[in-house]
Amino acid sequence: MKKKIPIITFIFTLFSMLFFMYGIWSVIECSREINSLVASDMVDLKTDAFKVASYVFFDKGLAAIVFYCLALFGLGRLLKDEETSDDKSE
Fold it and tell me: Which helix (H) or strand (E) holds 14?
């Protein structure tokens, strides 16, 4: 018997993967911007590490992207597990 994936689980997993890919792209773009700032001596990573980290996580929204990615993936898994447990009980 072929197991059918619930559509809502598929949608949550799909959006989770999209957020994950967007997060990777965001990290790459942030690293390019930070590298250009370091090369022009506008930022020193040793003294401004907290500013750089807060820029990446909060100004560019990486913390929200990571949260949405994990939340959507978790909801998808939770709904999938709930539906499979309902199928076993019947």
Answer: helix 7-39
Tokens of 3: 């197991």
Name all contacts of 12-18 with Cβ < 8 Å and 24+ positions apart: 12/72, 12/73, 12/75, 12/76, 12/79, 13/72, 13/73, 13/76, 15/68, 15/72, 16/68, 16/69, 16/70, 16/72, 16/73, 16/76
Six-digit token pair at 50? Answer: 């907290």
Query: pTM for this one?
Result: 0.76
Domain range summary for the chain, segments of one domain joined by +: 20-89
- Compute mean pLDDT per 10 residues along the chain, 90 residues long, and list them: 75 92 91 89 86 83 90 89 67
